[in-house]
Amino acid sequence: MGIGVAGLAAGCLSSNSGGSTSNGSAAGGPGKTTIEVMYGLGADTEPGFKADVSAWAAQNKLTIKFTKAASWDTEIRTRVQGGNAPDVGLFPQPGLMCDLAKQKKLIPYDDATVATDKETLVPGFVEAGTCADGKVYGLPNEVSVKSILWTDAPAFKAAGYQAPKTLDDLLTLTAKIKADGKTPWCIAAESGAATGWPITDWIEDLVLRFAGADNYDKWVKGQLKFNSPEIKPAWEYFQKIAFGDGYVRGGTKSIVATNFQTGGNALFTQPPGCYLFKQATFVANKGGFPDSVISKLDTETAPIAFPSKTASDNPVLVGGDIAAAFNNDPNTLKLRNFIASKENGTQQAKNGAFSPHKTADVSLLPNKTLQTIAADVLYKATAARFDGSDAMPAKVGAGTFWTEPVKWLSGQQDLNTTLDNIDASFPKTGS
User: Fold this and answer.
1) Which family does it belong to (predicted)?
2) 137 with 110: CB under 8 angstroms?
3) Per-chain mean pLDDT for the chain
4) Cβ contact 103:10 at 8 Å
5) Which one of 68, 361, 385, 430 has the lowest number of neighbouring Cβ atoms within 10 Å?
């Protein structure tokens, strides 16, 4: 979701770890008996992850040291800089992972493992873990789905509204809800010091749809400007909704003052305070929607796939954690490969986490709502991409991409100024 630092400046870490570290033995030896895995997983995902990995470790007669980082980017930098990297790390930011890969801190996956996993992974997930040298350094453990519109099922149905199939349909629906004397949207972007990041999810989803997956990749790498003809239409579409007269609960300026986790709760008031809310699947966990809604998710909500330009297309934006190895000890690599495999994720699924593998048993997910999102949205993706802001340089992805839209939505500047300011902040190639 873009609330972590997306990368580290090249050269800020020591460069003496090479292919193995001081706490790892070379591949081909007997292997370590205790393997450390470090992550920043949330309270909903961590128990299932630990259960899955512990079961695998017991079968392989290995001991796992689980280390949870409160601030992943800061703590992993400190560990690597001190020559004390964990054996395996789960990266929420592909950009940070590739920075470390560039400094020879990580071990790439072998071709056979990549080929096996690619057979079942959602299209695009292998590319997300591929760095500038063309090697795959990370593959996903689990993912959340961002391309979702949430509704209050009874209210939406009672009003006679239909799920939009295309982006044009979505604008038509928005206008109809307004014409009916109701407020179409709840949009929420307040997140303390990280206020503005939810807008990046909106824009990323729209770039995938207007520009396509290849141009999305170029944009994330800085090869296409924010104010380019390929990327600007995504912003212009969002502008039609966010600045539409009467389209947003509280008005345009309220967006940056409305909390991202609870900002959709007005869906469920009587009468509804809004009818549409775009947010990732984590909002259906405690701390997001009201407990009374979460306990009856299948009847209280009716999530809709965020529509594309054409009904036949289904690009999907995700967040997640990518498994990478810091040394080539054989048991380190076995653990990393298991985490990325289709065999992993049984217990995580029971806690509501999505496997990145299309062959996963969706019936393990705890409710029909999540099962439907997995089967009909994630596993039917024509192209999936990880959160773009997490892969951009930190001063953009966790900087101006957050702060400049806040100024725009607050009425301090126009769209062109917003996009030009973000472009001006993007580090020049090679810097």
Assistant:
1) Belongs to the bacterial solute-binding protein 1 family.
2) no
3) 91
4) yes
5) 430
- Cα 353 to Cα 48: distance, rounded to the nearest angstrom: 9
Query: Is the separation of the CB atoms in 121 and 358 below 8 Å?
Result: yes
Summarised one tens digit per residue, pLDDT across range 308-323 is 999 888 999 999 999 9
- Both tokens assigned to 289: 């929607």
Structure tokens, 136: 């795959």
Nearest to 338 by CA among 35, 67, 9, 132: 35
Alpha carbon distance 346, 351 (integer Å): 9
Task: Note the pTM of the prediction, 2 decimals.
Answer: 0.87
CATH of 148-316+389-425, one of 3.40.50.10680, 3.40.190.10, 3.30.10.20, 3.60.110.10: 3.40.190.10
Give the 3-state secondary structure of residue 247: coil
Dist. CA 359–CA 376, nearest whole Å: 13
| DSSP count for the chain of H helices, then E strands | 18, 10
Burial 181-219 (b: 16+ CB within 10 A, else e): ebbbbbbbbbbeebbbbbbbbbbbbbbbbbbbbebbbbb
The pLDDT assigned to 396 comes to 93
The DSSP output letter for 333 is H
Q: Where are the domains of the chain?
A: 34-143+318-385, 148-316+389-425
pLDDT exceeds cutoff 60 at 405: yes
